[in-house]
Each structure stands twice: as structure tokens, then as C-alpha cells.
Amino acid sequence: MRLLDLTLSDPATNLALDEALLLEAEATGEPSGVSRRGEALRLWESASYAVIVGAGGSVAYDVNLQACEEEGVPVLRRASGGGTVLLGPGCLCFSLVLRTDRALGLEHVQPSTRYVLDRTLNAIRTLVPDARIEGTSDLAVSGVKFSGSAQQRKRRFFLHHGTLLAGFDLPRLSRYLKPPEREPAYRQGRQHGEFVMNLPATIDELKRRLIVEWEAKANDDPLPMKKVNELISEKYSREEWSRRR
Question: What structural domains and CATH numbers belong to the chain?
């Protein structure tokens, strides 16, 4: 599996690279059983704060637009599903591009989500022995969340977006995000500050653990920057994409 420990210049470009890696894998990945070419683990951490709405999420319901506009926090939309999140320093984003035939059941959303989350738990188990999967795609300790996930899927490959919090400025969640339009039952109506926690680790330690778990290795293959720029032009830079709902 290819390793990309790489953060690009701004949140929109980072989102576009994740989708470009998926599209490149789907277009060029080799047939089943030949190799794992196209699979990738990308690790990145936004240097600035940005609100990222899921593909079907609602800006009006989920985002405090006044606070975001006053403080220059961009509101963007990703191509994967899931809820609205706040990215920034202390939020490690891990993006996995995986073949749907690498393990049984990965052609379906829930088994593939559980597959990735089980591997993530294995990587951090000694940090948080009591952590478990909650809701459809969260990781939490005693009902307090430290990781969320979402997917974008193609026929042969899927993109799994995940986050791990470590040293994140948690009060900013309530500043820029409203209570979500839809929430998992285990949240029980709690505000962001009561519902979210940081892991007892550094971002670098979390990176190391994920790299070991996925046996990812860096290589010199070129990045799909032509597709990145196309995606930015077509949607990630456009308000009709980010504010469509």
C-alpha cells in the first residue's frame, strides 16, 4: 500500500487530492489478484480551521455561518458521506483508498466501514483499551467520540475518510458547528463539548501506528495533480457545490 504523509496548501486542495486518488485507482488499478496497486494510506492535518460538510449534509442545519464568516473559516463540501466536521490543528485525517476485493464484504458500506474501524482500533488499542465502535462509523470511549468516518465508493475501490483527534481545540466545535441535523442514538442530545474528546497521543504517534497497521510504504509515483486541479475547478472551489444544501 502506498503511503502519502502529505498535507497540501489549503483544505479544498486536500479534499480534491483524496478524491483524485480514488478516481485514479478506479481508472488504472490492476485486476483482482494481480497486485494492490492503487491502494493508499494518506495522512494529513490541516494547518487552518475549515468546516467540511458531508456530500448530503446541510450547511443551513449544521454550520454556524455567521461565526465562520466573521473568523474566515471556509465551509466546504467533501464527496464522501457522513456528518459535518471541523478540521484543523490536532485533527489527523486519514484517507484510505482500498480495493473492494481485498477482504470479504468490502463491496458493501457497513462491512467495509467496520473493517477499517477494526483496523484503526487495533492500531490505537494500547492508547485507549476501552475504545469501541459506536453508531454507524464512530470510535468512542464510554460514549465520548474521538473519531468519525465516511466513505465515497466506486465499483472496484472505495475511499474511507477518517479523523482522529489529538490536541484539538475542542471549544471551537461549538463555535463553528450547530448541533447536527442527524445524530447517532448514543449521542443522547449532548452538546459538542460533552460528546467529543482528544486521544492521549501526539499526531506523530498516531501516524506511526496507522502506518504500521496498514504496512504502508512511501514511493515516488506522481500525484494525480491534473485531476486535483480539475476537481477544484469543477466543484471544490464553487459555492454551488459547497452550499448546495
Answer: 2-242 (3.30.930.10)
Residues 6 or more apart in contact with residue 203 via CB below 8 angstroms: 45, 90, 92, 166, 167
What is the distance between the alpha carbons of residues 161 and 120, in angstroms, rounded to a whole number? 12
Q: Which of 164, 169, 195 is nearest to 180 (CA)?
A: 195
What pTM was estimated for this model as a whole? 0.94
What is the residue-level pLDDT of the chain in tens, covering all 245 positions? 999 999 999 999 999 999 999 999 999 865 544 445 799 999 999 999 999 999 999 999 999 999 999 999 999 999 999 999 999 999 999 999 999 999 999 999 999 999 999 999 999 999 999 999 999 999 999 999 999 999 999 999 999 999 999 999 999 999 999 998 888 999 999 999 899 999 999 999 999 999 999 999 999 999 999 999 999 999 999 999 988 87
> Helix or strand or coil: residue 112?
helix
Measured CA angle at 31 (ends 3, 27), to 5 deg: 65
Please give the grid coordinates belonging to residue 180. Answer: 447536527
Detail the DSSP E strand segments found in 8-156: 40-44, 50-53, 75-77, 85-87, 91-99, 132-134, 138-141, 144-147, 149-153
- The DSSP secondary structure of 150-219, one letter per residue, reads EEEE-SSEEEEEEEEESS--THHHHHHBPSPSS--GGGTT--HHHHB---SS-HHHHHHHHHHHHT-EE-
